[in-house]
Structure formats: structure tokens, C-alpha cells
Amino acid sequence: GRLNADNARFLLLAVLIVLYMLCGAAVFSAIELPTEREAKERWEERLENFTRRHNLSRAELRHFLREYEEASVAGIRVDDIRPRWDFTGAFYFVGTVVSTIGFGMTTPATVGGKIFLIFYGLIGCAGTILFFNLFLERLITVIAYVMKSCHERQLRRKGVLPHNGRRGSGTSEVDSLAGWKPSVYYVMLILCVASLIISCCASAMYTPIEGWSYFDSLYFCFVAFSTIGFGDLVSSQNIRYESQGLYRFGNFVFILMGVCCIYSLFNVISIVIKQSINWILKKLACKCCHRCQRRLFRSRRNVVMPGNVRSRRNISIETDVVNESDTDGRRLSGEMISMKDFLASNKVSLAIMQKQLSETANVYPRQMSSNLKQNGFSGGVGALAIMNNRLAETSVDR
């Protein structure tokens, strides 16, 4: 049933994520490990030369460096930087907390600050995630409105829709546009372009002000906007900037817009990944079903079945609630089924019949033309009326 399909989707996604992580670890290890070893060898050589030049023991020097590492965690640097915990620095910190970026350059050192962070981050992160979701909904609404307007213009150019906005020959087209929504691939493409434009504009600002290369600025934008937040590059950390207030405002706007776009892009990509997983599971299920049907046909080809088994399984979205059940299994095994099971397994057909009966009772009698009366077919209500209408259409076509 649906639970088994969800479990299969979950397991397949877990396997794919693990494989993705293994491949990523192999690639990063092959790229970064040689550079790390070279840097370690250069550091050991410098450390040895420094101890010889100043006649220091290696243990004392390492102890001093460990103390500097502790001071660095508290925000102390060799170069002059702005205070970490003034109001602007604290506001920058809470922005990285609620946005789940967490650069790690500024962290609370007191017990009270750590306890407050737990409760503050719990509410702040939840509220920010809700804001991102609402932003995505409104963004999709705007995209849908723009794309729908463009689609309506194309239909007007083709003459399907009237230019004055009144319903004419294109009534069916207007009705079909009522619940029209854009494709997820168009939304993904638009979000990719928007994220790229914001990242390029932000990198053009960071490169001259922070002194980074343009590629490092792009790298920082992705790490910050995707809320990964390594902390190796952090903006707005120097003590002085040219047009400091304007730069901090621009930094805040770019990070906010970038996080919203990248977060929305991640949500859309997750939908595409889910569709891909469903496609893979469908292909695997089709192969398994073909094998099972062949085995079943070979083993039970001489068995008389108590009824017709449905051969079409391409159920639409409206009838997607009908899944494989124990009723299907009993029908394949040749057992008799109860009336309750029969009605449950055929509720789609019953719903369609009820809809046809309702349309026959309310619509068709009013739409009966003189041709039907001339052919001797009455309106009627019920299954007989459906048959009469079909015969009437056949006779009129002839």
C-alpha cells in the first residue's frame, strides 16, 4: 500500500544520500589531502626554525599556541578587528543564528549566554523557517501569475482568447487557466537565475571591500546563502570600512535575499529529486510486476477466475486513493469476495456512474434537442438514459 511505497522511497533516498556522501568524501579527500600535508610540513619546518632561533623548547611553544587558540575562540585576533559583542556585532550574530548559518566566528563563552542561545535559537530558527516557507509560497504565486499572463497573451495572439477579456469561443481555455500552475522545472530555472544574479552582485561588492578574490566571494556567497556557514570567510569583520553603514546594510540585504532564494531553490530541487525517486521506483515496480505476472500466468493459466481482473492500472490523480489491497489478492487467488469488498474495490467505477447519473438528471434533459425527439429517444433518468443518449449520439452522427 501507500505505507510500503513511502518506506521504499525513504530507503532509496537514504541509499542515494549515503552513496552521494561517499563519492563526495572521495573527491574532497583526493583534492584537499595533498594540500593539507604540504601545509603541515611547512608549519613543522617553521616551528622547528623558530624554536632554534629563539632557543625555546618545543613543548613550551606548543603550550603558548594552545592558549592563543583559546583566545581566538573568545574573539581575540592578532590583527585589529571590531568588537564581537557590541550591538552591531551581536545583531550580526543573532542573524547567523536564526538563519541557521552559524559561521562560528562568534560564539557565546558564558554559561548564561549558552543557555539563552538554546531557547532563543529554538524559537528564532522555527520562525525563520516559517518565513522562508511563506516566502517560497508567495514567490511561486508571483511566478505563476507572470507565466499565466504570458500564456494568456500567447493565446490572444493566436486568436483563442478574445482581446476584450470577454468569454467567447475560448471559454474552455479560460476555464483551464483557472487552476493553472507553472511547472516545477520553470520555477527551478527562475530561482537558479535569481540566485546566480544575487551571488554575482554580492561578490562584486565583497571583492573590493573585503579584499577577497572574486571566486572566493562567490564561494562565500554560496556557503552563507545555503546556511552551511563554514566560517573560513566571514564578511563585515574588519574594524573599519569605507561607507561602513551602507556596506553593513548592503551585506544584510544580500544575505537575506540570498538565503531566501537558495532556501526556496533547495525546496524545489527536493521536489525534483522526489519525482526522480518515484520514477525509479515505478520502473523497478514495472519490472517486478512483469516478472510476477509471468510467473502467475504460468502457474495458474488453467484456473477460472470469478470475474474480470482490472488490466489498466494507470489511475489518475483523482483516483489515486485506490491502491493494491487484499481484495486484489483474493481475486487473483480465485477466492470469492464479499459485497463489501466488491464495493470497496470498485468505488471508482461507482463514483463515475454516480457522476454520470447526476449529469443525466440535471443537465442532459435540458440539453435535449429536437433531433433526439425526432429519433424517438426520450430524456429519461438513470442508466437507461445514459444508453439512450449514447444511441442518440450514434444515430445523429450517422
Explain this structure.
With 398 residues, the chain is mainly alpha-helical. 72% of the residues lie in helices and 0% in strands. The chain has 14 helices and no strands. It is found in: Cell membrane. One of its GO terms (cellular component) is monoatomic ion channel complex. Belongs to the two pore domain potassium channel (TC 1.A.1.8) family.
Can I get a quick summary?
Residues 33-60 form a coiled coil. By secondary structure, the chain is an all-alpha fold.
Record keyword descriptors for this entry:
14 helices; mainly alpha; extended; 398 residues
Number of strands: 0
Inertia-based shape: extended
- Provide the succession of SSEs: HHHHHHHHHHHHHH
Distance between the termini: 47 Å
| Rg (C-alpha, Å) | 34 Å
* Poorly predicted runs of 5 or more residues: 166-170, 301-337, 363-384, 394-398
Total helix count? 14
Mean pLDDT: 75
Strand content: under 5%
Domain Potassium channel: 77-139, 189-274
Keywords: Cell membrane, Coiled coil, Ion channel, Ion transport, Membrane, Metal-binding, Potassium, Potassium channel, Potassium transport, Transmembrane, Transmembrane helix, Transport, Voltage-gated channel
Subcellular location: Cell membrane
GO biological process, one term: stabilization of membrane potential
